[in-house]
Each structure stands twice: as C-alpha cells, then as structure tokens.
Amino acid sequence: MTSPDPAAAAAAPSDAATPARHDFIRQIVREDLASGKHDAIRTRFPPEPNGYLHIGHAKAICLDFGIAEEFGGRCNLRFDDTNPAKEDPAFVRAIQEDVRWLGFDWAELRHASDYFEVYYLAAEKLVAQGDAFVCDLTPEQVREYRGSLTEPGRNSPFRDRSVEENLDLFRRMRAGEFADGTRTLRAKIDMASGNINLRDPALYRIKHMPHPIAGEGWCIYPMYDFAHALGDAIEGITHSLCTLEFEDHRPLYDWCVERVDLAGHPALLAPLVEKGLPNVAARPRQIEFSRLNINYTVMSKRKLTQLVAEGLVDGWDDPRMYTLQGLRRRGYTPSALRLFVDRVGISKQNSVIDFSVLEGALREDLDAHAPRRMAVVEPLKLVLANLPEGHEETLSFANHPKDESLGMREVPFSREVWIEREDFAEVPPKGWKRLVPGGEVRLRGAGIARVDEVVKDDEGNVVELRGWLDPESRPGMEGANRKVKGTIHWVSAQHAVQAEIRLYDRLFSAADPDDESEGRSYRDHLNPDSRRSVRGWVEPAAAAAAPEQSFQFERLGYFVADRVDHRNDAPVFNRSVSLRDTWAAKA
Ligand code: ATP
Ligand code: MG
C-alpha cells in the first residue's frame, strides 16, 4: 500500500490543543503511516456485552478511539457477542451510551454475530486444508491431553480423521445432530508447543441456545480467539490493540488470520456483501498494552457483578462503583477521565495506579470548570439580631474565582443564616480560626459577624447562635477589609432549599481489595463509611441546577446534581470528590 502523503498523515494529532502523545503504540502507528504500510488507520473497541464498562475500559476506549481520531482513521465498536448465554440488551445500550459520553463515536457498529456465516465458511476452509478437525474428547479428556507448562500435550485420537469425515461431522455439528459438549472443532497446530494456546485449541463448540441477534439458526458458536482474529481481518483493522494477557494468544491470532487468509479469498466474505456490510479484509497486527489497575478498587466484571447481585452497592450506577455509569453518577466528567487516562499513559509495564491520580484528575477538571456555590451540610442557625426582622437583600457573587467568563450570580442574604455546625466551637481547640462565643468571623461576601449568645436545648446541645453583623463591614465598605481570622460559608435560612446531600467516599478501605490471603475476600474490605446521606441546605442557584451539573460547594468539595434523583424543588447532590486528598494523610 502507498500513502498519498505519509508525512502529513504521520503529523501531529488532529486536536491542536492537546500535545502529541508519544507512547509506543502511537509510535508504531506513526511509522506505519510514514512507511506507507497503511494509508489509513483502523482500530476497534471490542467489548463483550456481559456487563457494564468500567474505568479500565475507559483506557482501552481512549486508546482505540483516540488513535483513530488523532491519525485521521476509523474506529469500530464491535460487540463480541459470541457467547449467547451471557448477553443482555441493557449492557449493549449502556456500552454505546458510555462510549458516546466519553466523547467518542464509532465509524461502524458491528457485532461478531454479523460474521457467523463468514466464520463458518472460514472454519470449513480450515477443515478442507487439513488445518482443523472434529474432536470427540470430553472436556475433561481435552484437559488431560493438553499437558501442562512443563509437559507437552498428547495428540487427540481423533486428530487424524480424514478431511471428508471432518467436513461431514462439522456440518452435522452445525445441523444440530450432537449434544452440547460432545464434540468440538479444533485447530490442528502443535500439541508439543511450549505455548499452550497452540495445543490444538478449540475453534467451535456446540451450544444449543438461540442467539439474541443471530436467532435460532446456530447451535455451534466460535471461540473467542478465532472469532476475534477473523473479526479484525474482516473489518480491515490495522492495529488490534488489547491488554497484555493476550500476548500469549498472539501466535494463535496470527495463525487464524494467516490460515484463513480472508484477503486472499474474498469469496469467504460473500455473506457480508449480501448483508450490505462493507469490508476491507486485511492482515491486522495485534499489539498488547498493560491493563489499568487502580488501588482501592476492584475492576473485574465478575466482581462488579457480584457487588450488585449481593446488594453490597445500590446497582450498577451506584456512585461508588468503578463502572463508567457509576463514575458518571458520582460526578466524574468525560474530560477528567480522559485527562486521567492521558496521565496514566500506555506501556507494556504492569503497574497499580494510585487512587489519588484518579481523584486528582477530577479535582483539576472541576477546579477549572465547576461554578462555585454555597451549601451547608450540617446546619446550625445563626441569627444576626442587629438586623431588622424580615431583613433581606441580594448579594452578587462571582461564579468562579479564576474564570470571569463564568459570570456572576445573585445570592440572597437575610437576618437568619445557616452555617456549618463544625464552624462553631464553644471551647475552641488550639489554632481555631472559626466562630467562638464572643469571637468574630467573616461570613463569606456578607460582612463580619460575632456570636453573642449560645442557645441550648434541655440536654445542653447548641441549637442556635445569636449575634451581630458589623454594619461597617458590609460588601464595598471600608470596614469590610478589617482583619479577622477566618471566613466561613453560609446560606440564607429564609431562601435556602433543603437538599439531600450524599457524602460518598471510597468503596474499599484497603489498598488491595483483591487480596484474598487469610481467607478474606474483597467483601471484607468494604469501607463502612463509603456512603452517608445528610439533609443540608443549598443556595437557590444550586437548587436550580440541571441533573449532572457539577459545582464546588465552597469549603466542602465538588458535588454533582444527581443524574437520577435531583429535582429543583427537592435537590439531591452527590459528593464527587473532596477538596483535598484526605486519604494521603491516613495512609
Ligand atoms: P474484565 O476482565 O473486567 O471482565 P474484559 O477484558 O473481559 O474485562 P471486554 O469486554 O472483553 O472485558 O473488554 C473490552 C476491551 O477492553 C478489551 O480490549 C480489553 O482488553 C479492554 N480492557 C478490559 N479491562 C481493561 C483494563 N483494566 N485496562 C485496559 N483495558 C481493558
Ligand atoms: Mg473479555
């Protein structure tokens, strides 16, 4: 293949705002474009629709779609739906939503099941070439014959069947003549190979179960390695990117691509032409990179599924979950996740990323973009007794201290305000800078207040503070600049809207929740304080938020209006992340 202008194609990514990324995969892509090996890049993201996507998948998505985007190529979304037993249309919908939410779109939406007919013809071709055989060993026998890492396997007694017998049996497998598990179609490669994946791996197994898309027509289903390699070849994928655990499968991947040779046998693609599915058969190259691992999380679909099934979390989109649906509900933004993935980078080195890197990316994104609001999570009333009864006024606040383009908002103020209970101490600890009896503090943007009287109930609990607002310290006045020790936030009691505020924290309190030593499981590492719900008060401009709108609640952290439950007259906010890393100190 020749490239019209390899230099141009290999130039910097299309998004001029982002600096060019220089990981080893992008380096390969640049070289392949510059040398003219490919004139366009094609990638794919191939999820199995057996669960929701998690943060690990975000890394693969940003890589697969990101490379296509940066180098003017195309990326397909391909559902690997070769196992009809595990699929659910809800997963299929959510996966598409998640990819779009992250900011990507696919060139084409495909399913491995689109190719069932091609896979079948390809398998018949392998049989005809003497490269595959029908094996009658039971699954236990197959295991026994396979050998181990230190011992070679043994040939199946069915390995030398004639091509005619194999073809006949394989066709009868497809016709439904045999029960599940009684026969497989196996590649004929090498039972003595040091790579166990090459010891005559299964290509097809019998499963009498209709397929959610392909319907009743099939009772044999292709195995992952075979289907995946051919799917890539069918779609003309140039760089098939996957995680390191597939490194040992690469020789099998290459074997499938080469022995079937779709590019050299376009007739095999005839069933796709009938379906109107364009294709550009090619010889794809598999490249592996290391998985994303983050401490304090579990990331396998199996464990995430168990958390939901056992009711340990409130569903797939629980804001504590590491699914993309959960992170989204928690208040993670697509740009924060993309920033995180960029920071983590792409390599072949397995590592565990510190959770603070994920939270740091979110803080950084929200600090720059989230408007500021005031909210009080544990309210205590402060009455400014020197203001006239019924006094109210409107103050003007900047939405963002560093970004004027976010504009101003009106914040109502009145004689009675809610302040944070923990901003008052009768007996202050050393170094205290907030309210004490007789002491002064600045009410953010409203003036300087003093506490004169502490009102208590019969049990001695503080239920109200009564005090004074310095009339010479109002916004704009000379006296507003008078030095006082601390500044606290507040909301007008008369105007604030009561809100449910969900104070989320990390789901696991152990750095390695997957640690199963001493008979433990990740269930034993759940953080009992990962969710606390309180009733607080928010200023009207926070209550008016649309679902999924993020704010910094001053001095409290970053919060998002819950995607599902938030209403303007009954606001619900989730804490996305605290203002500072409180875990670093604990560790
Ligand atoms: P899990 O192991 O969590 O069940 P999976 O690998 O079975 O995930 P798939 O749906 O097969 O999930 O994955 C789709 C793509 O996402 C694959 O290319 C896979 O390599 C990639 N992927 C999955 N987990 C991670 C991860 N932690 N980091 C990077 N890529 C991942
Ligand atoms: Mg998988």
Automatic annotation (TrEMBL):
Where does the record place the tRNA synthetases class I (E and Q) anti-codon binding domain?
487-562
Q: Which HAMAP family match?
A: Gln_tRNA_synth
What InterPro entries does the database record attribute to this sequence?
aa-tRNA-synth_I_CS, Gln/Glu-tRNA_Ligase, Gln_tRNA_ligase_bac, Glu/Gln-tRNA-synth, Glu/Gln-tRNA-synth_Ib_cat-dom, Glu/Gln-tRNA-synth_Ib_codon-bd, Glu_tRNA_lig_a-bdl, Rbsml_bL25/Gln-tRNA_synth_N
- Name of the protein: Glutamine--tRNA ligase
Assembly: Monomer.
Look up and give the organism this protein is from: Luteimonas composti
Question: SUPFAM superfamilies recorded for this chain?
Answer: Nucleotidylyl transferase (SSF52374), Ribosomal protein L25-like (SSF50715)
Where do we find the motif 'KMSKS' region here? Answer: 298-302
The UniProt annotation places ATP binding at 48-50, 54-60, 243, 291-292, 299-301
Where found? Answer: Cytoplasm
**Gene encoding this polypeptide?**
glnS
